[in-house]
Specification:
- By secondary structure, the chain is mainly alpha-helical.
- It contains 10 helices and 3 strands; from the N terminus they run αααααααααββαβ.
- It has helices spanning 3-13, 15-38, 41-67, 82-111, 120-146, 153-159, 163-191, 196-225, 231-242, 277-292; strands at 247-259, 262-271, 298-305.
- Helix 2 packs antiparallel against helix 5, helix 3 packs antiparallel against helix 4 (82-111) and helix 3 (41-67) runs parallel beside helix 8 (196-225).
Length: 314
C-alpha cells in the first residue's frame, strides 16, 4: 500500500477519534473565550472539559500507534495491550483533571460568586458546542452500532475490546449532558439572581465526569488485566473440537485478547490414544485452520494434548 493510501486508511479507521478531536479543540477555544468575557464558572469548567477530551483523543491516537508495533523477542505477542494502558490513563485524566477542576471551580464560585452580566455569548457558544458535540456523538454512535450486532448497548460496551470506540461515545455523551447542565446553570443564575447556581452547575458537571471516568476505568482495567474472547466465538471453537471423532474430551478453552483485533487461544484436549505422533500433528494443523477460519482475530493457537484426569478444569 502506498504512503498516501496508508494515511487515508489510518484516518478512515480512526475517523471517530479525529472527528472528536477537531470538535473538542474548536469548542474548547470558544468556551474559554466565553468564560473569560462573561465570568461564568460552568463555562470555564466546560472549557476544561473540552480541553481534557482533546488531550484524551491525542493519547488514544498515540496509544493506537504504539500498539500497532510488530511482535519482537521482548514482546512475542505484540504491543496491543499498550492501547489498554493509554485508555486507563485517559480515564484517570478525566477523573483527576476534568472532574477535579470542575468540582473545585464550582465550590470556589459558590463561596465567591460573580454575577454573569450578559449570558448571550454563553448561550451562543453552548448552542454551537451542542451541535458540534452532537455531530461527533452521532458519528461515534454510528461506528459503535456498526459492530454491535444483536447485542444490547450495555452488552456491546461490556464486551467491546476496542477502547477508543466506547471512550469517545462516553465522552461525547458526558459532554452533551454537561452542556445542558451549563445552559441551565447560566439561565437559573440569571433568572433567580443567584450566581451561586452557576457554581452548582459546575459541581454537577464534575460529578458527571467523575461517574464516566470511573466507568471507563473499570472497563479499561478489565482489558488491561486480560479479557477472554466473546462467548459466542468460544462456543464455536468448542464445537470444532467436540465435533471431531479423534478427540475424546475438551478439558478447557482459555482465550485472551492481546489487542482489540488479536486473540490468543490455549486449549487442553484429550486425544484418542490410538493417534500416532504424525497423525496428531496433522490433526492439530487441521483444527487450527478450522478455528482461524472462525475469526480473523485469532492470531495464536496453542493446543495441548492432555488426559482429562490430569487436566485442571474450571
Amino acid at each position: 500500500m502506498s504512503e498516501t493510501g496508508s494515511v487515508a486508511a489510518h484516518f478512515k479507521a480512526n475517523i471517530v477519534l479525529y472527528g472528536a478531536l477537531a470538535a473538542n479543540l474548536g469548542i474548547a477555544v470558544a468556551k474559554f473565550a466565553a468564560a473569560g468575557i462573561s465570568g461564568s464558572s460552568s463555562m470555564l469548567t466546560e472549557g476544561v472539559h473540552s480541553l481534557v477530551d482533546s488531550g484524551n483523543q491525542v493519547l488514544l491516537l498515540y496509544g493506537q500507534k504504539r500498539a500497532s508495533r510488530k511482535p519482537d523477542p521482548t514482546h512475542p505477542f505484540g504491543y496491543g495491550r499498550e492501547l489498554y494502558f493509554w485508555a486507563f490513563v485517559v480515564a484517570i485524566l478525566i477523573f483527576a483533571i476534568g472532574a477535579g477542576v470542575s468540582i473545585y471551580e464550582g465550590f470556589v464560585h459558590i463561596r465567591q460568586p460573580h454575577a454573569i452580566e450578559d449570558p448571550t455569548l454563553n448561550y451562543i457558544v453552548l448552542g454551537i458546542a451542542f451541535l458540534m458535540e452532537g455531530a461527533s456523538w452521532a458519528l461515534a454512535v454510528r461506528e459503535f452500532d456498526r459492530g454491535r450486532g444483536d447485542q444490547t448497548w450495555w452488552q456491546a460496551i461490556r464486551r467491546s475490546k476496542d477502547p477508543p470506540g466506547f471512550i469517545v461515545l462516553f465522552e461525547d455523551s458526558a459532554a452533551l449532558i454537561g452542556l445542558v447542565i451549563a445552559a441551565v446553570g447560566v439561565w437559573a443564575s440569571i433568572h433567580f439572581a443567584d450566581p451561586r447556581i452557576d457554581g452548582v452547575a459546575s459541581v454537577l458537571i464534575g460529578c458527571v465526569l467523575a461517574g464516566v471516568a470511573m466507568l471507563l476505568a473499570r472497563e479499561s482495567k478489565e482489558l488491561l488485566i486480560g479479557e477472554a474472547a466473546d462467548p459466542v466465538l468460544i462456543a464455536q471453537i468448542r464445537e470444532v473440537l467436540n465435533g471431531h471423532p479423534r478427540i475424546d474430551a475438551v478439558n478447557h478453552i482459555r482465550t485472551v485478547h492481546t489487542s482489540p483485533q488479536a486473540i490468543f487461544v490455549a486449549i487442553s484436549a484429550d486425544f484418542d490414544d490410538s493417534l500416532m505422533m504424525g497423525e496428531a500433528e496433522t490433526l492439530i494443523e487441521e483444527l487450527e485452520c478450522r478455528m482461524k477460519a472462525l475469526s480473523p482475530w485469532i492470531t495464536s493457537i496453542y493446543i495441548r494434548p492432555e488426559k482429562r484426569v490430569d487436566a485442571m478444569v474450571w
